[in-house]
Amino acid sequence: MTVIRYIIFFFVISLGIKSQTDSVALMQMEGKDLRKLGMNAMLQGDPNTAVTFLEFAVNKNKKDYAAQILLAEAYRLVRNYDASEKMYARAYKGDPVKYPEALFYEAEMQKSNGDYDKAKENFAKFKKEYKGDDHDMKKSAGKEMEYCDSAKKMIEAEKKIIVEHLPTDINKVNVESAPMSLDENTMVYSSLRTDKPEFIIEGDTNNAMVRKFYLATRKDNQWQFQKEWEEPFNKPGFNTGNGSMTPDGKKMYFT
Fold first, then answer.
1. Helix (H, G, I), strand (E, B), or coil: what is residue 184?
2. φ, ψ for residue 186 (rounded to 5)?
3. How far apart, in whole angstroms, are the C-alpha atoms of residue 144 and residue 138?
4. d(CA 111, CA 147)
5. What percent of the chain has pLDDT over 90?
6. Are 220 and 185 spatial neighbours (Cβ–Cβ below 8 Å)?
7. DSSP output for 234-251
8. How far apart are CA 119 and CA 141, in angstroms?
9. Among 204, 205, 210, which residue's Cα sits nearest to residue 235?
10. What ranges in the chain are assigned the alpha helix state H?
């Protein structure tokens, strides 16, 4: 369960946010307050919850470039590089003077997305135009340009690999983590299986959902969700995950 650690402001209490925060309550909040909650979630190392708050904040105020920068960073931390790239580009286009570093991070996301030509172009633009104090970032832009050239050469020389998202019966709205292969066609992974974002206020665990181990199998090169793993690891009221099997398959470590 994603946990939000923050001071509950009076405006939050007035909206009646209980253990499960719903979208109606968030829609009624001011954009600046949503940004504060998103920032606090980021400071507490909870980018998934930050995404929820910051998406509402950005939709509330299309010119809140500070919220856009935070949301781009939250997307990056949850490895949604495509969304992160677009949000960094949006913030840079909105206020390139105040947020010149956004161009560098946009290029980084383009690199992560495999668009090496655009990444190199933006790294070069950043290196040429950046007038800020972060000299290391400017040097890094030059190195990143070299990396883009090297990556393209490697791709041309090697067999291409296609990376695809698993189907939505496995990839749910919350984070799936730590897949572990039992054999070439069977895997165990940890998930909070819901169809909407779930988060609670720290200390309030009434009806709180928890992460569990689940089983997925592959048939005809397609992965499918099967069921909750029946081994004795999932316990009521406890989050379970990060499974790792010893090479001989006789011991398993988990949290």
1. coil
2. -140, 130
3. 10
4. 9
5. 42
6. no
7. --TT------EE-TTSS-
8. 10
9. 210
10. 10-14, 23-27, 31-43, 47-60, 65-77, 81-94, 101-112, 116-129, 135-157
pLDDT, position 70: 95
Question: Is residue 93's pLDDT more than 60?
Answer: yes
CB 246 within 8 Å of CB 252: yes
Question: Cβ-count burial of 219 within 10 angstroms (0-12 exposed, 13-18 middle, 19+ buried)?
Answer: exposed
Label the pairing between strands 2-4 and 199-201. Answer: parallel
Give yes or no for residue 10 having a pLDDT over 60: no
pTM to 2 decimal places: 0.57
How far is residue 198 CA from its own chain's centroid? 15
| Structure confidence at residue 9 (pLDDT) | 40
Rg (CA), the chain: 21
What are the counts of helices (DSSP H) followed by strands (DSSP E) for the chain?
Answer: 9, 8
Task: Provide the pairing of β-strand 212-219 with 199-201.
Answer: unpaired
Task: Quote the CA–CA distance of 179 and 64 in Å, as a whole number.
Answer: 37
Note whether 203 and 190 are within 8 A (CB).
Answer: no
